[in-house]
Amino acid sequence: MKEAPALKVMEAAKKIMRSSGNMHQWGEGYPSEAVITSDMEKSGGFVIEDEGRVVGYFAFLPSPEPTYHKIFDGKWLDDELPYHVVHRIASYPDAHHIFSDMIDFCFAHDANIRIDPAVSVSESQLVFKVPPQLHYIYIYT
Predict the structure, then answer these.
(1) Distance of CA 74 to CAs 50, 68, 139, Å?
(2) 118-129 mean pLDDT
């Protein structure tokens, strides 16, 4: 199982978050091994490897997503179509192209994707910058 390497990636990602000003997302003990195991048991937990080393992790899970039933200060562009959600995007600081590799994988499987950076995170605090060609729309603050 890839839980242990994924958890190490998560800890590295928390350090990136804290250094960029995101002090509250992913508190102590989250994401836990149980969360990662659950993602993988649902066939939705993915590691990104570089030359056999786990350098990134993300969850890509089908709808419905209970935490997305209601959002604040915005609305989804389409509430009718099924969608996938992306959670727990993480990488080591020296890993490159993680977001683009992850998003390419996701869009190859579904065109309707929701990514929640966290209510307390402003667009300027997002650790992963979204390339303009993806037409990402930041819909709430």
Answers:
(1) 37, 11, 5
(2) 47
Q: What is the token pair recorded at 124?
A: 């300027």
Angle between helices 3-19 and 33-41 (to 10 degrees): 120
Tell me how far CA of residue 79 lies from CA of 17, 64, 83, 87, 88, in angstroms. Answer: 30, 10, 9, 19, 22
How far is CA 28 from each of CA 10, 18, 21, 74, 77, rounded to the nearest angstrom? 11, 12, 16, 29, 33
In whole angstroms, what is the distance from residue 24 CA to residue 21 CA? 9
What confidence tier does 141 reach under pLDDT thresholds 50, 70, 90? very low
| Lookup: tokens for 31 | 């994401």
pTM, entire model: 0.80
Give the CATH fold of the 3-134 domain.
Answer: Aminopeptidase (3.40.630)
* Single-letter amino acid, residue 109: H
Residue 60: its H or E element: strand 53-62
